[in-house]
Predict the structure.
Amino acid sequence: MLKTNKKGGEWIAWVLATALFVSLSVMLIIWAKGRTTEMTESTVAYIEGKEECKLVIISADKDGVPPECGTLSVKNRGTITIKKFIKRYDDADSGETEELLPDPETTIDLIIPAGTKKVELLPIIEAGKGQLAGCTAKRLVVQCE
């Protein structure tokens, strides 16, 4: 009669399970390292943006007859270029504007829809390495009523 060696199958299963565990561990470490690097870079840009936001000074004049805003003239009185503004009318996103250079004589004229009660403008600047940062502390809110 032939003798069969059953221990060989156990060793092969053990080696395959160990190889699977090691390969999954390496994949997880590589993924986590990449994710950490991405998060660190975005945090650095946010911090730089916060520091640069101190250079943002904006003002807005409305020329509508109350309770309408009519046209809103926005001026950049600071020393840094505002890449764009995020516009919100009555707490609803309404798009973006063009770039506004640091020149008190240059304005962006926004035609505000009739019936709008509140206009909110969030300045977006370039904060190191070409990344954009929102200056929430410099957000401008204009009440139309």
Summary: The mean pLDDT is 78. The two ends are 100 Å apart (CA to CA). The domain at 1-145 is CATH 2.60.40 (Immunoglobulin-like). The chain has one domain: 1-145.
